[in-house]
Amino acid sequence: xxxxxxxxxxxxxxxxxxxxxxxxxxxxxxxxxxxxxxxxxxxxxxxxxxxxxxxxxxxxxxxxxxxxxxxxxxxxxxxxxxxxxxxxxxxxxxxxxxxxxxxxxxxxxxxxxxxxxxxxxxxxxxxxxxxxxxxxxxxxxxxxxxxxxxxxxxxxxxxxxxxxxxxxxxxxxxxxxxxxxxxxxxxxxxxxxxxxxxxxxxxxxxxxxxxxxxxxxxxxxxxxxxxxxxxxxxxxxxxxxxxxxxxxxx
Length: 250
Prior knowledge:
Blueprint: H1 3-31, E1 35-37, H2 38-42, E2 47-49, H3 55-96, H4 102-107, H5 119-127, H6 131-158, H7 164-190, H8 196-216, H9 218-232, H10 234-246
Antiparallel strand pairs: 1-2
């Protein structure tokens, strides 16, 4: 493959993977304010933050980026995502300060069952996350991504580039254990009013969900690997993976 074509495909691949990573990380941060009952949904004990529903997409994308673009590629997009998340929170904060239009309040003054309803208060409650939640989310995100990227490459070196499932699953299980505890501890224990037992209980449920998701998504990792190898070409794919292992690809 001509060098120019390979460079273009490499750029396009990183762009697509980065887009998937950013949009899911941002959505997970925004919707993570909701805690839902696993018991009511699936008859299983525990509660989960809504953000964990799409976090598996984030860490599977992290592993794919690490596979082809190395630790540097993961950290570059991770730090960019932190900046974008901060920007999103600032924009949301600014919108909550805008004075509501009276007709908007009037036409939404009751819910579907005729009960009094304050839509501006609801908007604040849903979108205006506390400073503790924002700090906790970002601290956990950065720590988790640095751990994931580093452990992934460690497993890669130990296994000599074999066993994709080992480096992908192993790095995810370690990094998400830390992430699950840190985000809740900072957001709801340090800055909130949760007890340590509540933090550990929700973190435990979140982690085992992520654990199961990491195992179940292993075939997706292999499918993505296969499709990317076909897109790049086998020889070019091997070159990119070698560069990623040496951490010189981006």
